[in-house]
């Protein structure tokens, strides 16, 4: 009964914040970039909350069951990507407006923006699906409800909350959600240090940086398909666009790097510790929820569950909002979509993402599928564009389409043919680079 009450109050709070935020929305700038009023700390809080979604927490715990301490590379790659973004963050803020495809339109023409809008919008369904599945896993394990029911509820709450307040509600809650997440993770780690497991915890020196289930080639793939999306990513850029100035944007990225770095090892530790306490549990996340319920003080257990939900929701709302705006700009890449139309796109994307989540049933699998398509298509054109590269539009278009399709095929066959999958992803980046090289026109003077 207490669990239902806490969950109900949490959802009610989100709805109230969304409703009050909706009253602040006067134009597209308010809805999409919170009026560009974000301080460095608010933007960093939003970045941290967005990064620490189900991909980081639940996904890393899933990986720790197979890869042990090497699972830390998921978040470490995120840190590497953000660190690489730091010197470019001011330029991104200066040149950007609402979305990443708008930047591509400025660099390579409207058709490039349209291609980006279509491919990113579709690829981001995998990211939204990962958040839906993450929230469903949390609620199913905590409340002992059927996964399908929790998927329905998660999709509904995430969609309604985001539709109501747009970026105002996202920025407003992300800062406090990030504090809750950090407090819960560190306090849980502290309390679990004194809990004896039925089996010993794996040694860091035996399983990091590499181990049998995570080899250097896997790290290279992760850098290409995951770390790169923190250097050039719609969700990350949407946070930067909310900053009030270039200095705040750069400082927010630096703060995020410093805070996220130690979590790269804390999160897999929590997953592995849970499996040492419940070694017969098949699913690591169910083992972790069992630890939360049975080995933590009552207040901390509830805080940890709310932190996990906060992490998922803070990623899902940003992703859904970004994807809806990006898809809606396919017709007019340089023009902000009216808020009403964007809300319709959110509903459509939420429904399609729900179907994908039900089909894949894997947080990390759904996440990496979407990121692979995106990274193969847009990382190089976007990063080079920010550095002044300008190419012939036709070759840039070919680079995006072939890179995204080939990378997507590679990730889709990853489970059945992992070695062939890696070749496809390397080929995607190679094709992308080849087309950009052949189509080179000039280096534009940076401003």
UniProtKB/TrEMBL annotation:
UniProt xrefs under CDD domains: SLC5sbd
Topology of the protein relative to the lipid bilayer: Multi-pass membrane protein
Name of the protein described by the UniProt record: Sodium:solute symporter
Location within or outside the cell: Membrane
Residue ranges of the TM segments: 70-90, 111-133, 145-164, 176-199, 219-240, 252-271, 298-331, 367-387, 394-414, 420-440
Record's keyword terms, sorted: Membrane, Transmembrane, Transmembrane helix, Transport
Family: Belongs to the sodium:solute symporter (SSF) (TC 2.A.21) family.
Any GO CC annotation of this UniProt entry: plasma membrane
GO molecular function terms listed in the Swiss-Prot or TrEMBL record: transmembrane transporter activity
Annotated organism of origin: Persicobacter diffluens
Gene3D superfamilies documented for this protein: Sodium/glucose cotransporter
Chief localization: membrane
